[in-house]
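@channel sequence for tomorrow's demo:
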Amino acid sequence: MTVGEEGKNAARRDPAPASGRAVGRDPRRWVILAAVCVALMVIVVDNTVLHVALPTIEDDLGAGPAELQATVNSYVVVFAGLLVAAGLITDRYGRRRAVVIGLGILVLTSVVAACAPSAPWLIGARTVMGVGAALVMPGTLAILVHTFDAEERVKAFAVWSAVGSAAMAAGPLVGGALVDRWGWPGIFVINAVLAALAIVLIVRLVPESRDRQHRAVDGAGAAAMTLAMGSFVAAIILAPDHGPLSPQVLGALCLTLLGAAVFGIRQRGAASPMIDTGLYRDRTFVGASAAVAVLAIGTGSVLFVLTQHLQHVKGYSPVEAGLAIVPLAAGVVLGSPVGARLPARIGARWAIVTGFLVTAAGFVVLALLTPTSGYALVATGLFLAGAGSGLASPAVHSTVLGAVPPDRAGMGSALNDTHQQLGIALGVAVLGSVVTTAYHRFADPELGVRPGTSLGNTLSGLSPDHGRLIDAAHTAFTRSQSLAMLICAAFALLGAAIAWRTLTRDHRAAPRE
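structure tokens (generated this afternoon):
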């Protein structure tokens, strides 16, 4: 779910404060909003800032493709797997407390990550970061619901959404500048500073609130769901290096089945299950959820691949690569307002299909890249991919929430975020594995590329005198990148087909009463 859509969904929820206090205007409410926005920035920036640092991490820590994928996915998978449980924890034990604890985890793990001497160390730190992020995200909106009355709540969510969108756009650019100045540890240092500042503001300004219903939290079920998701993603990442039938891959798949089985058993036996499985019998909910997950597979992984092209093939510095990525965010920002109006005019189905087709066109443009292509092709492809996502996202997310009863809107939002984050993790795993495998197959035999070898690994062993071999490596990588972009386009088209098939012709994504 985009930051803007989550804000809109929260604005539609019950306006009564969860703590039961009388509705009133806290004189510190706008300062509280600023504190919450700083906490939000930590989560959003941490999701986007890492991509421009990946080539530098690859060089400094000797990380291979699988380790780079794990660096990104360890955070995303844990974040996604714990979102639903974290929402329940936040409501039961206090929103301010959960946010502060989550931010504290992010401070400590960001410092640990900045000091990482090896890729496994960094992956471990990113894994625990996902726990902190999952605790912070649900609490930010809940604090605003508690702080603002119904009249001002829309304004507060608009500011919250704008800050989130700005942070998403600024992440790669800020990351590039930090990597240029202080190396890749700089991106984690700034994360720790922002999180520490947010803790001070939240503790000093935000009153505590909690849900009076005190719903049970199934920690074992949440751990089992995270294990299933993480193991499945790990199996995809490990397959290019070890083979699809290797003990490592088969072991990861066994853990996937075990985690899924444990989660299912606990859900069936729970008096108040974390997830309303009945939603997955709703054609609209399933179709729209599948569409958003499929779209995320492409849009969530494009930067993972493209930043390597920009820095290793085109020779951009990290800050130049961050600037080069701006058209993607610009497309999202410009496309979202149009996408918000489309469902009322042409229906949710056509809005989603139109957006997905534009995104697919962007990926096709990026598939045309060669080692000698100019920046205009990169900018055009990224802008189209972002604009398509902006056009489709309001309709697809409102359709998901429209299929959920109003009293379960919080759980519906958490499930929607989970589907999207899982799509991003799968995208990085699948597309990263495709690029790695294809690069090995397309590479000139003289390069001696072994399974699991990346372009960065190859170039580090070549001197400037090896011009022909460097060109051959660049060509092999761009060919594998083109294959990955065509797969992204296919996923976008699949999402369009799912939306067309599952939504009715006149569907307007109106919330269920």
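heads up for whoever presents: DSSP finds 19 helices and no strands in the chain.
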